[in-house]
Amino acid sequence: MDKILDHIGVAVRDLQGSIDFYERVLGATLVDRYRSEAEGVESEIAIMDIQGARTELLAPTNNTTSPIARFLKQKGKGVHHVAYQVDDLDEALAQLERQGVRTLPHTLRTNKHGRRLIYLNPADTEGTIIEYCDYPNSIGRE
């Protein structure tokens, strides 16, 4: 199964300050900014584009339950996850199961942009949080 880099997720404490930095210093364009209060997400997200390369800036909206808040407490701000686009998420999940790689089933969801996603279990990925995603109703990310 082919995989391509879809985006990098970065945990931040000050979302607007981070957006300003990406725009001013890196020349990024803000593609979208939205809030997700879904259980296990609880984050405000800014999608930044730099010449076709995407970065998701992630700030917690609930310091008790947000996984981003936990990440910031444990590791501080910085790269949270790396996301790879696959052709078919269901097929990729079956392949992972055959390879003995676990996922975090509670993270399986479809976001507001139609991207289906799931996180792989960091215990099976040498500690890196990896997201697999697909765009079943479109030709790819917006």
What can you see in these coordinates?
The protein is an alpha+beta fold. The protein has one domain: 2,3-Dihydroxybiphenyl 1,2-Dioxygenase, domain 1 (Roll), CATH 3.10.180. 21% of the residues lie in helices and 42% in strands. It is built from 3 helices and 8 strands, in the order βαβββαβαβββ.
Task: Give the topology.
Blueprint: E1 3-11, H1 15-24, E2 29-36, E3 43-50, E4 53-60, H2 67-75, E5 78-86, H3 89-99, E6 103-110, E7 116-120, E8 130-134
Protein name: Glyoxalase
Pfam families: Glyoxalase_4
Domain VOC: 4-135
A few lines on this structure:
This protein has three helices and eight strands, in the order βαβββαβαβββ.
Q: How many domains in all?
A: 1
Q: What is the chain-wise order of helices and strands?
A: EHEEEHEHEEE
How many β-strands, per DSSP?
A: 8
Q: Output the number of helix runs.
A: 3
Keywords: Metal-binding
Family: Belongs to the methylmalonyl-CoA epimerase family.
GO biological process, one term: L-methylmalonyl-CoA metabolic process
Protein name: Glyoxalase
Features:
142 residues; 2,3-Dihydroxybiphenyl 1,2-Dioxygenase, domain 1; 3 helices; 42% strand
